[in-house]
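Lab notebook, bench 4. The sequencing result for the construct came back, and we need a structural model before the next group meeting so we can plan mutations. Quick request posted to the team channel:

Model the 3D structure of this chain.
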Amino acid sequence: MKKTNQLKAAVLFAFAMLFTAVTFAQDKPMPSPRDSVSAKIGASTITINYGSPSVKGRKVFGELVPFDKVWRAGANEATVFTTTNDIMVQGKKLPAGTYGFFVIPTATTWTIIFNKVAKQWGAYKYDEAQDALRVTAKAVKSKMSERLVYKINSKGFTLSWDTLTVPVMVK
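Done. Here's the predicted structure in token form:
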């Protein structure tokens, strides 16, 4: 009888702990939620899946995101770029497939990187030898965007965050 009561108490305690954890976890918004954008450019469907961090009053480019270093182009897991058909990015061919998407920002010109290893945490194990394509694009001043956001249009896609936008041409 004593063991039955102890077992019941243990199960009740475990259930209460699980309920409490789930309840409190729902109240706290994710600081850098995953987001995704998908659209057609020509015959190809382009999909970009990324973590969307906020500025939160910080100086982003040159500090939070250092210049001249590989950045995962989002938060947490590396950004993932998928194209269903071969495309031309900034005039260079990118075969159909799924890629890790990275950038190397500078104050003006950014290196845009499509890496053959799509699933990575951050850029910690980024390997330049696995790059499928590297191109350059120019960052331009833009209106403030609190959250990092990607947009796809008929000319390509843009990465916008803080007061910069980086347009990348795709055909």
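DSSP finds one helix and ten strands in the chain.
Will bring this to the meeting.
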